[in-house]
Amino acid sequence: MISTERIAERAEVSPATVYNLIGPREKIWEALADGFVDELEDRLAPLEADDPRDVVRSTVQLFVSDPVVSRRMVRGWEASGLVLARSPHTQLRRAMADARTRGLLRADIDTDALAAVVSASCVGALHQWVAGLIDDDRFLTRSLFALDVALAAAAADPCRDQLLAPLRTRDAK
Length: 173
Fold this sequence. Notes:
By secondary structure, the chain is mainly alpha-helical. The protein is built from nine helices and no strands. Helix 3 packs across helix 4, helix 6 crosses helix 7 and helix 8 runs antiparallel to helix 9.
């Protein structure tokens, strides 16, 4: 359970200091979410070639790196969806557009729609993970599987075998 007292203890300040600097519980969640997204953006910024797999992998790894805060943020904060609206989806859209520009995806593909479908699938896996229905590894596997299905479906003919290969060798349970 995350409380003002636990945050104060971890920060080595008084609970009143936490409340005065951050505010009530909703503001604490906003501050945690802002820090979470800032960390995610720092992780995504240096990725080479905007590989969609790196975007998905880095996002999942950040969630599982601090499961107490991540799970509580998703489960207990009604505005938690805003966490995913800023960075990973924007970066994924950019990576999909880059893949289309490099010729991996067909020219007629709407990469924004493709990224939206992948994001929705990843959020589904996130909620399964938050509920404890799947473990960290399965969270990553399901998220990457959703991405691989989308990439394979949108593959340009010369890249079809390359983008189908992960699906042929992966267990998607």
